[in-house]
Amino acid sequence: MLRYLRKLLRDVPADKRITGALRETILQKLASEKGYVDWITLSTSLLFSMKYVTNYAEFEKHGMYNKIPMFDYTADGYLDGLEIVCTDYRELVEKYRDVQGTLFIADPPYLSTDVKTYTSVQCWTIKNYLDILTALNGLDYVYFTSDKSQIVELCQWIDGNKDKVANIFDGASVKTVKSPTSPKSSYTDIMLYKLNSV
């Protein structure tokens, strides 16, 4: 689909709005697709920044922009040497908790943000976040969030109530990256990491 769109939009400058007959051609192509359609990738490639949809009915309501990547995605060799498992994170943490050199990477849906694009997440609650924080306590980890999430504020509250609960982010290093969502607004991606064994 991206190859088709790249060719179709070759004369449309990057990041420019797609309107008129060209927009209708794209919508007709998407509506006629009978197989799997990756709406998240199409959202990233055609919709305004940070707009994500999961079906055609939602997609056709939005304006389109030429954000098609110039080259096909490739992950050749990217995962070589990794063992890929599909299991509940709690089982994974218990299995590798005491394995030297293990680094846990947590990228849950951001607290206080829309989780509809996660197909496996029907309802993600504060309990789920607290369960992850509890599971990571005392382990080496990288934890991704953003300033739209309120997880850091939650942990600061926890820090102020140490006699009741522990803040696993206490002493963690922080890296941030500003990500624009429009010419007038942005959000900040946050990565917290802590290496207890170093």
**Beta-strand level of the residues, as a percent range?**
15-25%
Whole-number tally of structural domains:
2
Number of helices: 7
Q: From the alpha-carbon coordinates, what is the Rg to the nearest angstrom?
A: 21 Å
Largest sheet data:
4 strands, mixed
Note the quaternary state here: single chain
Average of per-residue pLDDT values: 84
Q: How far from one another are the termini?
A: 46 Å
Shape: elongated
Biggest sheet, spatial arrangement of strands: 3-4-6-5
Structure characterization notes:
With 198 residues, this protein is an alpha+beta fold. The protein has 2 domains: 2-65, no CATH class; 89-194, no CATH class. The protein is built from 7 helices and 6 strands. The chain has helices spanning 2-8, 20-32, 39-46, 56-59, 89-96, 126-136, 151-160; strands at 17-18, 64-65, 104-106, 141-146, 173-182, 185-194. The strands form 2 sheets. Strands 3-4-6-5 form a 4-stranded mixed β-sheet, with no helix packed on it. It has a two-stranded antiparallel ribbon with strand order 1-2. The longest helix has 13 residues, at 20-32. The protein is elongated and about 65 Å long. The termini are far apart.
